[in-house]
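Intended use. Records like the one below are meant for learning the mapping from a protein sequence to its folded structure. Do not use them to infer anything beyond what is encoded.
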Amino acid sequence: MLLHLSGLLSVCLFLIVVGRNLAAEEIDPEEDDYPPGLLATYQAGDKRVQRIDPNIAFNWGKQAPLPQLSGNHFSAAWTSLILVKQPGKYQISAYLEGEIKVEIDGKMVLEGKRDTPGWIVGPKYDQNFGEFELQVAYKKITPQARVQLFWSSNLFGLEPIQANILYREEGNPKVAQISRGRTHFDAHRCNRCHKRDHQLTSPAAPDLTYVTTALNPEWLIRKIQNDDSVSAHAKMPFFGFNKQEAEAIAAYLSANSKTAKLQKIPNPKKDKKTKKIPTRDEERRSGEILMRSVGCLACHTIEGKGNQQPFSGGDLSSIGDKRNTQWFYTWLSDPEKLNKDHRMPVIKLSTTERRQLAYALSELKQTKIPVGKKTATNKTLIADGKKLITQARCAACHTIPGIEKPTQTVVNLSKAVQNWDNSCLAEKPNLAKGRPAYRTIDREAVEAYLKSSFGKLASENEFDRGRYVLEQRNCIYCHERDKHEGITPIAG
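Structure written out for the chain above:
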């Protein structure tokens, strides 16, 4: 019994510590003493663009390395420190289409070029352990471009030079700010209104066809009003709707949305060990542990614990005030049935696990929002709601029954913005002008990103796009890759 209690306490302590680590406020890596990654400088003609790259592994093909540059002729240079953990005889290799030079601690360790994709291998050299300056220069010399850097030694075989041994002596907050601005611009779906040639739009916001199924009407009105109780981490724009306007929008959605058929929650079976049927409270406690072990905290926060990133799924601390247990059970089984534009990964769960999670989620009621009355069906109120939805361009991001996607153009962001205080980056919205504001956006970073990308853009190359999708879909917040640690301690 004592051993059992000791083990249980150890598990609880582990979950608490991990929860605290995940909940810690994110620190800008560029403010660290040794920030990760390489400082990359890309150049085409007179145009020069910098960014932080996690490693040197690119397959640009015929495309440009960055949308701001031409893909026809360009060069790239990377600088960082490289950590050598053991002394030995080392050798640098590259899979290459182009021309490359690699120096470590001032010594040329690889030099060559290829007109077609293939390997080049440098001479073997003696290398001490420690941190050394790494400089890499690349030039495109054929219609296609590719470079991937590898190394080997008498201690290990050929492997990529990984991100976890590449870092710099000091950060570059201005360069990092531009990348962060692009992330916030996409995460807040700004590009679904401000469309540009060759720029891909962000994934759609939730489909509202079944939005009112098992939904607390009071929650919906608060959400439309951007109330603190439901919008602490909201990426949705807000327009300053008052309660009457929020009720009108809610009335339209209630009148035009469909009701989805929810799955029946099966009763629990007898536990094989105890021979007893677990109570709802016991199943809820099991569900709370599952929230951590299946990786929910990679995308969500719960009472301050978890991961809150630009592409995260939001805070669940009061999700039980929004939906009921049956809705959660259905959602965990078939989210597309309730929202065809969902971003939720469909995790393989047993019937018991889905029930346990549904019980746990339905009990998360930190805000204690009262259950509201059904929305009024007054025709005038519904018509007013439709007008407000159209005016706010909600259908640019959401699928809404009876509302067409807006086609009118908005401000062209390929040109310089004259007054940022009169843009969507203003702190307060202007409903009369149809201009929203954002609660969680990094205004300065988005402004820096837009300033860096004025003018005509090229298409983003498929390699970078693929790397970006891993961030956009939150894959790297579960799985370790590049400079991201994931949550392998609890999700594996």
